[in-house]
Structures are given as structure tokens and as C-alpha cells.
Amino acid sequence: MDFFVQVFNNHVLWVSMFACFLAQFIKIFTGEKKRVDLSRIVMSGGMPSSHSSFVTSLSTLVGIYKGFDSIEFAICMVFALIVMYDASGVRRAVGKQAAIINKIVEDLQNKKHIEHETLKELVGHTPKEVVFGAMLGIVVGVVLS
Questions:
Q1: Beta-carbon neighbour count of residue 138 at 10 Å?
Q2: 55 with 79: CB under 8 angstroms?
Q3: Is 121 helix (H, G, I), strand (E, B) or coil?
């Protein structure tokens, strides 16, 4: 029972999660079609990166509470950089592959009927989306610390 009380009272965890959810909420208004799209709140990819917001908020808060020269901050920062690299690199590449596969399937369909499910193309983030997500996480961490 003490475990759940400690988790519930962990300010750093909740502020970091808030930064993540705030980034997801902002995505409702930042789609390509320039209209409110509620479905984007549960989608990966898009502006801003909720992954970046989550990990930079965590790193910022750990730096504020434990010191920016602490081992805890260094650990958080290393993992934050890995997450942001993955968000903008590997996951972005998967999205590009999905776009190519979708185009191939579309071309094949023009010649004959093929049953398929369209792959999700918005999987990763552009570097700009990662940077904005990171800035949002830092701001949320500083303001709510």
C-alpha cells in the first residue's frame, strides 16, 4: 500500500506525465488539415512530440531538485536524448517506409483489386517536432516545479 501512496505523491512523475498529456492535447490543434481533430489526442507523431515533452520535463525537474550536476540528472538526460533520437530517427524512418508501402499498394490497386489495410504513416517526428516537444517539457517542468 505504501508503494501506491509514494507513486501518487511523486510530484516529479505527475508533472512529467502532465507535460506528456499537454503535448498530446496540443496535437488536436496542430494537424496538417488546420482543423480541430480529436482523434489526434491518441496518435503518435505530430507537433509537438509528447515523448520529448515527457522526458525533458522529467530531466528538468530532476535537475531542479537534485542538481544539474547530479548523477540522477545525468541518467535522465542520457535517456531523454535516446528517446528523442529514437522519436526523430527510427520512428520517423518507419513512417517513411509506411508511406512508400502505401504508395506501392495504391499502384498495385490501380491494376487489380487488392485487399489491404493502410499503414499508419505518422509514426515518428521531424526534428522540429522533437525540439518543440522538448521545449514544452522544460517549460512545464520549470513552471510546475
A1: 19
A2: yes
A3: coil
* Residue in this structure with the C-alpha cell 487488392, named with its chain if needed: 114
Among 141, 128, 30, 127, which Cα is nearest to 86's?
Answer: 127
Where residue 32 falls among pLDDT bands split at 50, 70, 90? confident
Any idea which residue has 528538468 for its cell? 60
HEC-encoded secondary structure of 78-112: HHHHHHHHHHHCHHHHHHHHHHHHHHHHHHHHHHC
pTM comes to 0.71
Q: Using one digit for the tens of pLDDT, what is the confidence trace for 52-85?
A: 999 999 999 999 999 999 999 999 999 999 998 8
Distance CA 128, CA 52 (A): 11
Structure-block grid coordinates of residue 64: 531542479
Cβ atoms within 10 Å, residue 54: 26
Residue tagged 500500500 (cell numbers): 1
Q: Cα separation of 88 and 107, whole Å?
A: 28
Q: What is the DSSP letter of 119?
A: P
